[in-house]
Every structure is written in C-alpha cells, then in structure tokens.
Amino acid sequence: MKKYRNWQSCGMALSKDMRNYQLILFFLLTSINIFSQVKNYTIDTIQVKSEILKESRSIIVYKSSSILSSDSVKFIYILDGEFSGYGFQRLKEQFKDSISNLIGIGIINTDKRRDLLYINSADKFLDFITSELIPIAEKDYKVKTRILYGHSFAGAFTVYSMINKPKYFDYFIASSPTPIMGLINKDNFQKIDSASRSKIFFYFSFGSKDLGQVRKWSQRLKDNLTGMKFTNLVWKFEILEGKTHFRSGIPALLNGLNDLQ
Prior knowledge:
By secondary structure, the protein is an alpha/beta fold. The protein is built from nine helices and eight strands.
C-alpha cells in the first residue's frame, strides 16, 4: 500500500482508481428503472437552480409510491448522487419494510473537488444543501429524521458538514473520509456536542485494505474521540475487514444505518 504525503497525492490516486470504478456507472444507472418497477418506488430527476452555486443541479429522488405527505418521513441525502441508485437499492434489500418511509435524495456532482473539499468551496456547497435543496426536497413532508451520507471526498464533506452545521442532520455517515487532517481537532467535536439540543449520531469507517492516507487520519480521529465525554454526540467507528477504498462505501452505508429503525 502506497503512503500519501498530502491530500493532493491521495486525490491523484483516487482519480486513477475512479476511472476504473466509473466503468460500472452505466450498470448502476440503467438498473434504476428495473429497481423502481420491482420495488414499487418512483424515481425522478429534478433540477434545482442554485443562486449560491450559480448553476442548476440535477437531483435524483427515490420515493416509495405508498408514502403520503402526512407520513413521518426519513430523508437520506446521498452525496456522489450519480452512484446513489445502487446504494438505495441495497438499503431497501437489507432493511425492507422497516424503513419504508425513507426518501433518498441523490446529489449529482458537477465539480466534485470544488464542492466537496473543505479547502475549496465546501462552504458554498453546504449552504446550497441546507438553504436551497432541503427546503425544496422536503416541502411536502413531515420530516422525522435527516441523514447525510458520503464516501471518500464526500465522506470528508460529511465530517465537515457535521462540524459546521450540525443541527441540519440527525445522522452523519462518513465512509473512508479523506482528506480530514484539518477536521479532527477535539475542539470541533466538543463544540458540536455543546451546540446540539438533541442527539446527533456520527458513524465513520474505512476498509482494512483502504488507502494509507484514509486509514491514518480516520484512526487519528477515532483516537481523538476515544475518552471524550459527550452529552448529545453519539459516535461509532468501524474497520471493515477485507474492504478496499472503493469496496467500503456500501457496507459503511448499511452498517451506519443499522440503528435507524
């Protein structure tokens, strides 16, 4: 396993692996229609014109046809939304009717590095989600629980979101988050706990065969959190045995939601 000296070199390796990973994108996206027919789900793509980002964003909405506006609904916001179909399908297969009132919101990328890396414009992307996307996606529903899930760069953005706007989500699931070296300070998590009026659940993990940079900093985050006393922040960390960087995302999503019933 190569060791990466900084987030840029790690990102270069991720970009090379992503070229191979994207070969399965066609299968994942074309499976959406089959999935919607078999599982009795509607899948729509909507356009959200963002004044914050100065662009229009494509959003995929996964919703059971049985959900009513009067129901108490759980929302999961899935970053890297172009891959969200497969993840949402696996959620339905594992949890079946226990999360039948779950609506998935897949946020498709336009400029991944700009939006997800906290050293770039993650602040604007987070403002887009909280100020523009959430009000549109949830305007017809009574929301019970709101979840944010991301893998890799999106996993780091998930941690960034929890630190900067913890009140907007109840669950934060960060799979193989990178880069997070500037986010792991203990004070960040103490502030989250102090500012929260209700429970916040934070799950993060990486694969045992993950990138060295990912394993290093996630382990340091785990070490920092160990021994800290929180009132409202509940956290869980896992090492996913045998999983590589691009094989850890779905297991993390499923394990992160195990307690959400």
